[in-house]
Inverse folding.
């Protein structure tokens, strides 16, 4: 099935927001076996929106709209599509009841324009909005499928995930839908991973094997056509096992989570605590960890030892190690080890990670940009120190370093 | 002038990357007074790209392409446009020389396909690529302007900024181009800011006044038509002064930088040092600061005092303050003050910021999600403690809290 995504909103044409909805929907469609050939962005303008619909109808079998379902007069996606299809707009009573209840519960008078959000095109199926007010629509007419979703991602995504996906699977009845599973890797680059799986990737038929890299992590998506996720999982099990046999050392999850989340789960299972000492990552590692709700169960805190003064005074790295002729310097295995071991003592944690390196853009202590030392200390165990050299700009080196440090802790935790 | 942005790349249709290029170019065009009516995304496919060009030519006077200028056979934007315009592709010798020199310097044999990146459409102007290999193109034919830019943002943006912008200004000769200036605010919400400027915004003619909010900061863009940036600045000076008179307390820069950068500049000017103690922001404040190259001049480091244990043992917050019946608790003015003052002593810094609050999703110590206390300590001066309540999800509350803390330090630094 060929699809076109139409994002409606003048704020996109002005560059005030980035079209992340198109990316999300493109990913979701690809994962379901729906082909996207075009994406269009059009403003809150009746004539141009109509033109975009007419064009999309000629070149796609499925048109997914995002945006323009809100209460204001700018929000005209439903009106324009209804006129294009020569259908009426009717009230979706359950949505109207929800909107009324919302205002009543807060003791606020409802502005009449809010009722617009409960309108739907006659003959369409309602897609419920669990996180907002505007009801979504889905319908098939003259062989074209139309799906209308709200613009705000926190409304659009749950509506797609919980309602639109099932609706699409129903209209794709004849073509058995694709189901996927995600394998998440850290500590290995995309090209090394592809190399290890080259024979599988080249001979792939069913399931399909699609690797792609996100910063500091690599994902493989396996997809197969099946009648349900459970049936798909069974069909993919032997391929998953083959990949696990080869790359199990780097495979930290079989679902779409970050390595920080995998690490926090293992720490919670072991009832263990963690502290971090960050030099070149400058707080990013802690920020990644604390972006996960519930991280306070295991994460005690850390030291941002950005200056040598802090490395020496708080974490007891000897001055002779940090500075002077022939000293290893702040960016060294020796310093990484002292940082991690002293942190373990200072914070009384079960595990401690240290990171020290050169984030750039300029070399430091004569050491090249991207060189990073990572220490992983554990109570009663020898400390692990590794070094890696990352490429990229300052932000990317910080991110890759934080992810690599989490990977080495993860490995220690699963050993 | 009406413009259409065409992003070329199957990776966009598959959702592997998000189309940030379209946002950047839309912003740039809006700032220059060029109207964007449509944005299109099309894959690496000859027939469909040709269709997109043909359509855009009918509805726009300027077509900006991104992507498809690379070395591989997938990269066909130049080929397809040249065929569409019935023009030859010719070699741009300076680009070819640069590519050859790159490979020679690294002692690598150049694969022939790399020469494709030096091709340009006959009769077009070359747009140099200072950060990559593929040369850009710009030309006018039959009243339509075509600008071809590479896909990777780190190549596309410098090419647009340094070459395409001037080229566009030349072809816009008849319409005097728009020039802008940015005013950046922190510590005030978008609606309060709009309210303070309502009369100016409602009566705006020249310059135009466009406020927009980014997370934790607000920007006002003033724009006016002029023959140069200098002339524009003169035309806008009295409006800038009027805004400064009303909102100077929140106006931290007259250029597009973050509050962290403004703070770092002031610290460097004063030759002063900074340390931070982060509880609910969990490292994000340090991460923001250390994302600025050169931050090590002023930033010593910090303590991520996520647990009460760290607050007590490293930063000497009394246990009786943190826990027990009637204690102020970790999220309190008292704790924020001790954290900032003890940090100043521990780190021997000139300034210290502390942040403690409830990032959510659940309340803590019976305190509501979003409540945050910020301490700003300075050697020899009384400590400032403020509290704010932020709305939003966990990540947004962290970000707004970090930005607000930087704002209060900025205010102290300019006092």
């Amino acid at each position: 099935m060929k699809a076109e995504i139409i994002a409606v909103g003048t704020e996109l044409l002005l560059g005030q927001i980035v079209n992340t909805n198109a990316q999300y929907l493109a990913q979701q469609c690809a994962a379901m076996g729906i082909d996207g050939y075009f994406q269009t962005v059009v403003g809150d303008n009746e004539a141009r929106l109509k033109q975009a619909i007419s064009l999309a109808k000629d070149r796609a079998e499925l048109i997914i709209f995002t945006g323009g379902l809100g209460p204001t007069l700018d929000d005209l996606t439903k009106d324009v599509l209804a006129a294009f299809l020569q259908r009426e707009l009717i009230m979706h009573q359950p949505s109207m009841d929800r909107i009324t209840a919302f205002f009543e519960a807060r003791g606020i008078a409802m502005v009449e324009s809010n009722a617009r959000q409960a309108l739907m095109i006659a003959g369409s199926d309602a897609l419920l909005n669990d996180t907002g007010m505007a009801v979504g629509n889905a319908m098939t007419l003259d062989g074209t499928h139309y799906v209308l979703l709200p613009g705000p991602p926190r409304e659009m995504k749950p509506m797609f995930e919980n309602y639109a996906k099932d609706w699409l699977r129903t209209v794709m009845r004849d073509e058995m839908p694709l189901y996927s599973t995600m394998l998440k890797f850290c500590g290995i680059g995309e090209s090394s991973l592809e190399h290890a799986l080259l024979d599988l990737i080249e001979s792939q038929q069913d399931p399909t094997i699609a690797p792609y890299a996100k910063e500091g992590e690599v994902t493989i998506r396996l997809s197969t056509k099946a009648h349900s996720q459970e049936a798909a999982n069974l069909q993919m099990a032997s391929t998953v096992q083959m990949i696990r046999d080869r790359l199990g050392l780097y495979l930290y999850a079989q679902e779409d989570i970050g390595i920080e989340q995998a690490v926090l789960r293992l720490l919670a299972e072991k009832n263990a605590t963690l502290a971090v000492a960050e030099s070149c990552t400058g707080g990013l590692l802690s920020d990644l960890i604390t972006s996960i709700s519930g991280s306070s169960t295991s994460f005690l805190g850390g030291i941002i030892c950005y200056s040598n003064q802090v490395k020496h005074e708080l974490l007891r790295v000897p001055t002779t190690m940090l500075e002077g002729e022939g000293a290893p310097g702040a960016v060294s295995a020796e310093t990484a080890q002292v940082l991690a071991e002293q942190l373990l003592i200072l914070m009384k944690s079960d595990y401690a990670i240290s990171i020290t390196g050169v984030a750039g853009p300029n070399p430091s202590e004569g050491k090249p940009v991207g060189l990073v030392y990572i220490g992983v200390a554990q109570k009663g165990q020898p400390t692990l120190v590794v070094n890696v050299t990352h490429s990229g700009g300052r932000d990317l080196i910080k991110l890759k370093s934080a992810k690599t440090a989490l990977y080495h802790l993860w490995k220690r935790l699963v050993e």
